[in-house]
Amino acid sequence: MKKPSHHFFVCCSFRASGEPQGVCHKKESPSLLPYLETDLADRGIDAQVTSAGCLKVCDRGPALVVYPEAHWYGNITGPDAIDAILDALESGKECEEYALK
Q1: Domain of 86, in residue numbers
Q2: What letter would DSSP give residue 95?
């Protein structure tokens, strides 16, 4: 298996009990997954998308992390945020507007 160049982890607020609990899930983070996967494919970006358990940044959710860059993003509320993050990724930069510092 060829490893992807990038791996996106989208917080879906799952906890040890398996139940979604936090802010990311309540703010519809799972609905970001199809858009992200489609946009990555449309742009030809070699990436894997994974729904993640709680990323522990509930006060700034919905959140996602991009590896290997280790860029953490928050307040991802829809397609415009995803587009800005992918634009920055294609430029080899971090998207400052959504970056968690």
Answers
A1: 6-90
A2: -
Tell me the pLDDT tens digit for each residue of 50-84: 999 889 898 899 999 999 999 999 999 899 999 99
Place of tokens 């587009």: 83
Distance, in Å, from the CA atom of 101 to the CA atom of 98, rounded to the nearest integer, reads 9
Can you give the CATH number for the domain in which 16 is found?
3.40.30.10
| Contacts within 8 Å (CB) and 24+ apart, 84-89 | 86/39, 86/40, 86/43, 86/45, 89/6, 89/45
Burial class (CB in 10 A: 0-12, 13-18, 19+), 69: middle
